[in-house]
Specification:
12-stranded mixed β-sheet; 4 helices
Length: 259
């Protein structure tokens, strides 16, 4: 199933993207309490796709691909390196990534995102799948200058958490095996990242289990699983695409902040 959140004449709905990709079976309810088809079909070309989640807690994992650890001139961490992005960082397909007026070096980071569907606490890796609704594409946009200044003092918030710095979409895909999905990131059509989630140092069940050991995960939470090598800069006027096998393509333009 590929679940979409979209708007018709400004009114948001959830629905299931049909196999041909041109129609959406509109549903009542939501993915966490249950979806019920209404019988209405909306054409993709006639709707506005929205971020698949509303107000999520966004968890991120850094240095979770060995090649990215190498390009960052770091050592593989002996504990998971986690951070959070505020819900205000979330944007959906087609919405602009806003390049801050003071920005000096803003990077893209294509990532697989896990969407929690059921409350999880003290979950074993073997049980993690029971608490996952599905997966979506994500872009962990990062202000490297601010990030490095913060990290020097052991913190990380503004460098990762600015408005529009967490694009996600276009769908929540259920029933996927996340252990070997191809991931490609393009900027203006040029491939910048090409990897497989098989290369994750900590696989999806481990990430869910680790977080649930320390805090309660809630339906609608999003976990950004880490980015592979190839991260790089974006500028106003660019378009970034994150494509993940079985999910689709997340596209976002980059625009300059107006102050």
């Amino acid at each position: 199933m590929r679940i979409v959140r979209y708007a018709v004449s400004g009114v948001p709905h959830y629905g299931q993207l049909e196999s041909g990709g041109t129609g959406i079976a509109r549903c009542d309810g939501d993915p966490f309490t249950g979806l019920s088809p209404t019988g209405d079909i909306d054409e993709v070309d006639d709707v506005t796709l929205l971020a698949p989640l509303v107000g999520p807690r966004i968890f991120g994992f850094a240095y979770n691909y060995a090649a990215h650890v190498d390009e960052s001139d770091r050592e593989v961490p002996d504990v998971p390196v986690c951070f959070m992005k505020p819900s205000t960082a979330l944007i959906g397909p087609g919405q602009p990534i806003v390049y801050p007026a003071y920005g000096e070096l803003i990077h893209f980071e294509g990532e697989l995102v896990v969407v929690i569907g059921k409350e999880a606490r003290h979950v074993k890796p073997s049980e993690a799948g029971d608490h996952i609704l599905g997966y979506t594409c994500g872009n962990d946009v990062s202000d490297r200058v601010v990030q490095r200044r913060e990290s020097a003092y052991g913190t990380l918030l503004v460098g990762k958490g600015q408005d529009t710095f967490a694009p996600m979409g276009p769908v929540i895909a259920t029933g996927l095996d996340p252990s070997g999905l191809s991931l490609t990131t393009r900027v203006n059509g040029e491939v910048k990242q090409s990897a497989s989630t098989a290369d994750l140092l900590l696989q999806v069940p481990d990430l869910v289990s680790y977080l649930s050991r320390h805090m309660t995960l809630l339906p609608g939470d999003a976990i950004m699983t880490g980015t592979p090598s190839g991260v790089g800069p974006i500028r106003p006027g660019d378009e970034v695409e994150v494509e993940i096998e079985g999910i689709g393509v997340l596209r976002n333009p980059v625009v300059a902040e107006k102050v």
